[in-house]
Amino acid sequence: MTKWESDTAEQERDIDPSSYVDKADLVRKVEEVAASGPVVAGAPTQVGGHPVPPGFAYEPSSGYYYNSESQMSFDPVSGGYFCNNRWYAWDANLNQFVEWRS
Prior knowledge:
Layout: H1 3-12, H2 23-35, E1 46-47, E2 50-51, E3 57-59, E4 64-67, E5 72-75, E6 80-83, E7 86-91, E8 96-99
Antiparallel strand pairs: 1-2, 3-4, 4-5, 5-6, 6-7, 7-8
C-alpha cells in the first residue's frame, strides 16, 4: 500500500493522519516527562495548600506519599507526616518534626 493509499484509507475511516507524531518527538516528550518524576493518575500534587515534599512518591494503595529514605508517609490533605504509628507536623520554627496531639 502506498502512502497515498494509506492516507486515503485513514481519511475514509475518519482518522486524521496529521495527528501522528514523529518518533523522535515522542521520545523527547517521554524523556521530559520521566525527568519530572513519577506521576500517578489520581495522585494529587497539592491539596488544601499542602504541596508534596521532594522525595515522596505516591502509593495508590494507601492514598499517601511515601519516602523510603525517611520511612515516612505524607498526607497532602492535612499536611501531616506518618511514621511509627504516629502523626507528625513539620515545625519550621524548630526546624524539626513535632508529634500531633489530639
